[in-house]
C-alpha cells in the first residue's frame, strides 16, 4: 500500500432517517468507522462493541459508527433494507450510529485501499477524512491494542 488514503465523501443516512455527508458529519474529533459489506458481518461488528463502549466512555472526543456499504443497485430497496435493520435495532443510539451508504462498493474499496469485502474494516478517521489507524476482522485484544496505541499518540 502507498500513502494512507483519505476517507472519500459519501452520502449516508442513519437508521433514524437523518441524511449525512461523511466524513464531515462524523460527530467526534476522532471516529472509528466500522465498514461492513455483508449481512453476516454484523457478528464481526458486534464483537467490537463491548470493548468500544468502554473506550468511548473514556474518550469523550471519540465516536464509533457502523457503516454498511451497500451496492448502488439496491438504492430503490433502501426503505425496505434500512427499515428492516432499524426494526431489528430497538436502541435509538445504535440506530443513530448505524449509517447506511448506498454507493459503488468497488469505488469505496479502492478509495480506502480495502483489498477484500470478505471481512470488516475498521478505520480511525477525523472529520477531514484523515485515516490514522486501520484494522480488519473481529475484535481481538491484539487488534484493540493497536487502536489504543494510535489513540495514545494522537491524544498526547
Question: Which descriptors would you attach to this protein?
Answer:
single chain; 156 residues; alpha/beta; seven-stranded mixed β-sheet; 5 helices; 7 strands
Q: Rg to the nearest angstrom?
A: 15 Å
Query: Roughly how much helix do the residues carry, as a percent range?
Result: 25-40%
Structural class call reads alpha/beta
Strand content: 25-35%
Widest sheet: strand ordering:
2-1-5-4-3-6-7
Quantity of strands, as a count = 7
Average the pLDDT over all residues and give the rounded result.
94
Characterise this structure.
- The chain is an alpha/beta fold and 156 residues long.
- 35% of the residues lie in helices and 27% in strands.
- The protein has 5 helices and 7 strands.
- The chain has helices at 42-58, 78-88, 92-97, 105-111, 141-154, and strands at 10-14, 19-22, 30-36, 62-71, 99-103, 121-125, 131-136.
- A 7-stranded mixed beta sheet has the order 2-1-5-4-3-6-7.
- The protein starts with 9 loop residues before the first strand and ends with a helix.
- 29% of the residues are buried.
- The mean pLDDT is 94.
Q: Helix and strand layout, with pairings?
A:
Elements lengths: L9 E5 L4 E4 L7 E7 L5 H17 L3 E10 L6 H11 L3 H6 L1 E5 L1 H7 L9 E5 L5 E6 L4 H14 L2
Parallel strand pairs: 3-4, 4-5
Antiparallel strand pairs: 1-2, 1-5, 3-6, 6-7
What's a quick, concise take on this entry?
It contains five helices and seven strands. It has about 160 residues and is an alpha/beta fold.
Amino acid at each position: 500500500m502507498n500513502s494512507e488514503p483519505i476517507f472519500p465523501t459519501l452520502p449516508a443516512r442513519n437508521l433514524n432517517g437523518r441524511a449525512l455527508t461523511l466524513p464531515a458529519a462524523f460527530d467526534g474529533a476522532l471516529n472509528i468507522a466500522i465498514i461492513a459489506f455483508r449481512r453476516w458481518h454484523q457478528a464481526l461488528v458486534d464483537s467490537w462493541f463491548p470493548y468500544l463502549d468502554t473506550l468511548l466512555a473514556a474518550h469523550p472526543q471519540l465516536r464509533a459508527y457502523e457503516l454498511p456499504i451497500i451496492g448502488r443497485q439496491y438504492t430503490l430497496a433502501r426503505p425496505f433494507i434500512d427499515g428492516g435493520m432499524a426494526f431489528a435495532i430497538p436502541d435509538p443510539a445504535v440506530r443513530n450510529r448505524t449509517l447506511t451508504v448506498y454507493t459503488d462498493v468497488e469505488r469505496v474499496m479502492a478509495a480506502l485501499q480495502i483489498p477484500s469485502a470478505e471481512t470488516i474494516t475498521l478505520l480511525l478517521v477525523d472529520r477531514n477524512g484523515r485515516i490514522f489507524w486501520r484494522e480488519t476482522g473481529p475484535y481481538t485484544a491484539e487488534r484493540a491494542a493497536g487502536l489504543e496505541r494510535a489513540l495514545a499518540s494522537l491524544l498526547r
